[in-house]
Amino acid sequence: AAMEAVVLSGLALALALPSMALENGLARTPPMGWMSWERFRCNVDCQADPHNCISEQLLFEMADRLAEDGWRELGYEYVNIDDCWSAKQRDAAGQLVPDPKRFPSGIKALADYVHARGLKLGIYGDLGIFTCGGYPGTMLENVKQDAQTFAAWGVDMLKLDGCYSSAEEQAKGYPEMARALNATGRPIVYSCSWPAYQGGLPPKVNYTILAEICNLWRNYDDIQDSWESVLSIVDWFFTNQDVLQPAAGPGHWNDPDMLIIGNFGLSFEQSRSQMALWTVMAAPLLMSTDLRTISPSAKEILQNRLMIQINQDPLGIQGRRIVKEKSQIEVFLRPLSRAASALVFFSRRTDMPFRYTTSLAKLHFPEDAVYEVQDVYVGKIVGALRTADNFSVIINPSGVVMWYLRPMALRLQPWHVARQQTPGEGFHPYIL
């Protein structure tokens, strides 16, 4: 009877948690890598534009850059093909096949090339009749076959889009693909665009279910190469942070879409802002830029070690906007492991650098604590700061100041305050 009771309680648990079996143990921190879409779109004209068309050559070259230019060592490991890679029809066996002219070696050979460089390969599918670009989609009857195809090719990540499918098909198909991927036995990170097609918010989107079946998900519009687009994404994510923030964590992330740093639409300040805000959001860091020609300044932003350390914090807590001032200054906070924090001071102003004064007490930090403050972009420790002390930061228009704060064990004596810095080293905390 005792054994029977154990079996029954186990059964009750299994019934209460029907989808826990879908946990695949992957993406314990937000995935990092490169993705083709924003920069290269659906450019399939390899005759006129061989250098920039969606082809195995483009992917080989991006894999080389990730492996050879310092990206891989920082965690940028995924080389992700987006839409428009396949032939216009499935083969006689109903299988997806790559375009024979643009991917003559096949996806398995591409995966082998990527893996040989210590990287991982991502691919794109679409739960519907067609992909968004008009290529063969994955209908419900194709889900298992396509999962097996991707696994056989050696794919490490799947982005499953939702063009040309109904809400009912999505409700069946997205969980079905999670099961099918797990059944292959190959670890495949699963990025699903399901919430983006349902408006991104409850009651249409159930983030509890989503977190159990997907490793990351697109909630909102596609990013475009403009500051206006970045701001619209930031606005939507932080306006809805009460719903979105609790949904994120190790193994399941909100995805505000690709990093466009290194392209054409963002200034230097705006590029730094996107990187800082995506890091505070615990967002995947999927670059969509030409790594063959990226500028040193864009590369420096994307390869900031402390920034990446914060993004990849093992606690995996998504940050929140905690202050929105009439002066168009906003403050964002992300709690990190070992009682550390990341603070981002962001200016929406378009006039001139703005001096913003506050204290950690006003930002709800614990009383009587002392923090060592490091400027994430300058890199230097800018001083030690007590919770009660007022401080000022100078924030450039559409720019950020980002701090990494570590708690210090000892109470600060007045003579321990950071020395005055020379101009140009960045503004440091000071005691009034």
UniProtKB/TrEMBL annotation:
<keyword id="KW-0378">Hydrolase</keyword>
<dbReference type="GO" id="GO:0016020">
    <property type="term" value="C:membrane"/>
</dbReference>
<keyword id="KW-0326">Glycosidase</keyword>
<dbReference type="GO" id="GO:0009311">
    <property type="term" value="P:oligosaccharide metabolic process"/>
</dbReference>
<dbReference type="GO" id="GO:0016139">
    <property type="term" value="P:glycoside catabolic process"/>
</dbReference>
<dbReference type="Pfam" id="PF17450">
    <property type="entry name" value="Melibiase_2_C"/>
</dbReference>
<comment type="subunit">
    <text>Homodimer.</text>
</comment>
<dbReference type="GO" id="GO:0004557">
    <property type="term" value="F:alpha-galactosidase activity"/>
</dbReference>
<comment type="similarity">
    <text>Belongs to the glycosyl hydrolase 27 family.</text>
</comment>
<dbReference type="GO" id="GO:0008456">
    <property type="term" value="F:alpha-N-acetylgalactosaminidase activity"/>
</dbReference>
<keyword id="KW-0443">Lipid metabolism</keyword>
<dbReference type="InterPro" id="IPR000111">
    <property type="entry name" value="Glyco_hydro_27/36_CS"/>
</dbReference>
<dbReference type="Pfam" id="PF16499">
    <property type="entry name" value="Melibiase_2"/>
</dbReference>
<protein>
    <recommendedName>
        <fullName>Alpha-galactosidase</fullName>
        <ecNumber>3.2.1.-</ecNumber>
    </recommendedName>
</protein>
<keyword id="KW-1015">Disulfide bond</keyword>
<dbReference type="InterPro" id="IPR013780">
    <property type="entry name" value="Glyco_hydro_b"/>
</dbReference>
<comment type="function">
    <text>Removes terminal alpha-N-acetylgalactosamine residues from glycolipids and glycopeptides. Required for the breakdown of glycolipids.</text>
</comment>
<dbReference type="GO" id="GO:0005764">
    <property type="term" value="C:lysosome"/>
</dbReference>
<keyword id="KW-0325">Glycoprotein</keyword>
<dbReference type="InterPro" id="IPR035373">
    <property type="entry name" value="Melibiase/NAGA_C"/>
</dbReference>
<dbReference type="InterPro" id="IPR017853">
    <property type="entry name" value="GH"/>
</dbReference>
<dbReference type="GO" id="GO:0019377">
    <property type="term" value="P:glycolipid catabolic process"/>
</dbReference>
<dbReference type="InterPro" id="IPR013785">
    <property type="entry name" value="Aldolase_TIM"/>
</dbReference>
<keyword id="KW-0732">Signal</keyword>
<feature type="domain" description="Alpha galactosidase A C-terminal">
    <location>
        <begin position="316"/>
        <end position="399"/>
    </location>
</feature>
<keyword id="KW-0458">Lysosome</keyword>
<feature type="signal peptide">
    <location>
        <begin position="1"/>
        <end position="27"/>
    </location>
</feature>
<dbReference type="InterPro" id="IPR002241">
    <property type="entry name" value="Glyco_hydro_27"/>
</dbReference>
